[in-house]
Amino acid sequence: MAKPKTNWIREERRKVLGDWAAFCVRCGAVRRWFEELEHEVPAACTQCGGEMRRRCPACTAPFSSAFAVECEECDAPLRPNELFGSPIHKT
Ligand SMILES: [Zn+2]
Ligand SMILES: [Zn+2]
C-alpha cells in the first residue's frame, strides 16, 4: 500500500513548477500557475474546451497537486474520481 505523499515533497514541487495547479475536468490536461498570473489561466481547456478548474468549487482554495481529487482545505471533491479509468485515491 502506497504511503501518502508528504507535505515537503509538495512544497518542493511548488517552488519549482509553480505555486498551484489547474486541470481540465474533461480531459485531464494540466497547467500550473502562479498567484500573480492567475488571470492567464484559461477558463476553458485549450485542448478540448472543457472547464479548467484551478480552485476548489466549494471554498475557492487553490490546490498544489494537479492530481488532487479532494480539496486540501475542505475535502470537497475536485474532480470525478474515475477520470483516468481507475479510481484515484488520496491515501
Ligand atoms: Zn481538456
Ligand atoms: Zn475546498
Describe the structure.
This protein is 12% helix and 12% strand. It is an alpha+beta fold and 91 residues long. It has a domain at 19-80. The protein has a three-stranded antiparallel beta sheet with strand order 2-1-3, with no helix packed on it. A hairpin with a 5-residue loop joins strand 1 and strand 2. The longest helix has 11 residues, at 7-17. The chain is globular, with a radius of gyration of 13 Å. The structure holds zinc ion (2 copies). One zinc ion binds at residues 56, 58-59, 61, 71, 73-74, 76. Residues 24, 26-27, 29, 45, 47-48, 50 line the site of one zinc ion.
Work out the strand percent: 5-15%
Distance between the termini: 9 Å
The overall strand count is 3
Order of neighbouring strands in the sheet with most strands? 2-1-3
